[in-house]
Amino acid sequence: MKLHRIPTAVIAVATTLALAACGGGAQNSSSGGGGFTAEPAEGGTVHVLQNADFSYLDPARGWDGGVNNFYRLVYRQLTTSAPGSSEDPTEIVPDLAESLGEASEDGLTWTYTLKDGLKFDNGDPITSAEVKFGISRAWDPQIGIGSPYLKQVIDAPKGYSGPYESGDMPTIETPDEKTLVFHLIKPFPEFDAVLSQVNATPFPVDTGAGDEFIHEIIASGPYKLAEYVPGSTIKLERNENWDPATDEVRAAKPDGWEFTIGLDPATIDERLIAGQGADVNAIAGNIQPATLPRLQTPQLKERVLEFPGICTTYMGLNTTKKPLDDVRVRQAISYAIDRTTIVNASGGTQLGDPATTILPTSVAGHKDFDLYPSEDGTGDVEAAQELLDEAGLSDGFTMTLDIRAQESMQAQAEAVQQALERVGITVELNLIDTSTYYETIGTPSQQNDAAITGWCPDWASSAATFLPPLFDGRNIYEKGNGNLAQINDPEINKRIDEIGAMTDIEAANEQWGDLDEQILELAPVVPFMVAKGVMLPGENVTGLFSSANAATGGIDYVGVGLKDPEKG
Question: Maximum Cα–Cα distance for the chain, whole Å?
Answer without folding.
Answer: 69
